[in-house]
Amino acid sequence: MSVLSLAGVDVHRGEARVVRDVSLEAEAGAVTVVLGSNGSGKSTLMDGVAGLARVSSGTIHLGGGPIGRLPAYKRARAGLGYVEQSRTVFRTLSVEQNLRVARSGEGDLDAVYRLFPELERRRHLQAGHLSGGEQQMLALGRALVADPRVMLIDEMSMGLAPVVVRRLMLAVREMTGLGIAILLVEQFAALALEIGTRAYVLRKGRVVYSGACARLKDDDGLLHESYFGTAPPGEGEPA
Ligand SMILES: Nc1ncnc2c1ncn2[C@@H]1O[C@H](COP(=O)(O)OP(=O)(O)OP(=O)(O)O)[C@@H](O)[C@H]1O
Fold first, then answer.
1. Cβ atoms within 10 Å of 66's Cβ, excluding its own
2. Which atom in ligand 1 lies closest to the alpha carbon of residue 44?
């Protein structure tokens, strides 16, 4: 069942129409992946869904209700969590304080600590002293304790070692067990396609591929062509 549904969405940055006519569905208990090269419009799309960039046409529904005209804080209240690329944590607060200030009524700190035992071990440490990977765990944890129905996650792999990224990806997959619909934006496709069900590829702000992650994962040529609009080097040349 789709919890988040976009139809014909355009998103502007200032005067520029960056995202064009995007339709997309994200299901409860699944990871939906949004891929695309640098500058293809992924973050702008996420900002549009979260209410941080102007949606000039199209509709956005969360749990069947329209949210496209609500301010960002009301979208959050309706169940939309957003883990931005900037990995926002309060650096001078402890890990536990970071989680407490982000928590809404039912939000469960223990669920975060089960998912990330390394955060429990550092619960009294100032967040500014955590490693980059741990800060990303905390950013995910902060979104989780707000008890979202949909979680947008933008490029959590940015600047992190592959082994850390894999750890985070597995945690994200585990989060789907809580029934959350996850929309995962990534520039680096391989790991995201491993944990995702459905994928969308953006190029110049438009959806150029929509379909099963498995299909893209098994077909490098299709992935390359979706990203760049051309066949990979060597393909189509005479043997
Ligand atoms: N505040 C802004 N004002 C004007 N143009 C912007 C702004 N932010 C982004 N853009 C432009 O919008 C386009 C899409 O950027 P966006 O950050 O959404 O892409 P992205 O796919 O998330 O890329 P990246 O992987 O680099 O984050 C780019 O051409 C970018 O230059």
1. 11
2. 18
Question: For residues 67 and 61, is the Cβ–Cβ distance under 8 A?
Answer: yes
Distance, CA 9 to ligand 1 centroid (Å)?
Answer: 16
Angle between helices 95-102 and 132-144 (to 10 degrees): 30
- Region at 79 (left for phi over 0; alpha for psi -120 to 50; beta for the rest): left
Using a 6 Å cutoff on CB, does residue 203 contact ligand 1? no
Q: Model confidence over 214-226: pLDDT tens digits?
A: 999 888 888 888 8
Ligand 1 touching residue 46 (CB < 6 A): no
The domain made up of 2-228 has a fold known as Rossmann fold (3.40.50)
pLDDT at 238 > cutoff 70: no
161 near 134, Cβ under 8 Å?
no
The residue nearest atom 23 of ligand 1, judged by CA position, is 39
What is the pTM (predicted TM-score) of this model?
0.92
Q: Does ligand 1 come within 6 angstroms of the Cβ of 14?
A: yes
Q: Whose CA is nearest to atom 1 of ligand 1?
A: 13
Is residue 119 within 8 Å of residue 137, measured between CB atoms?
yes
- Provide the token pair at 223: 């992935």
Q: Beta strand 198-203 with 206-212: parallel, antiparallel or unpaired?
A: antiparallel
Comparing CA positions, the residue from 235, 195, 239, 236 lying closest to residue 214 is 195
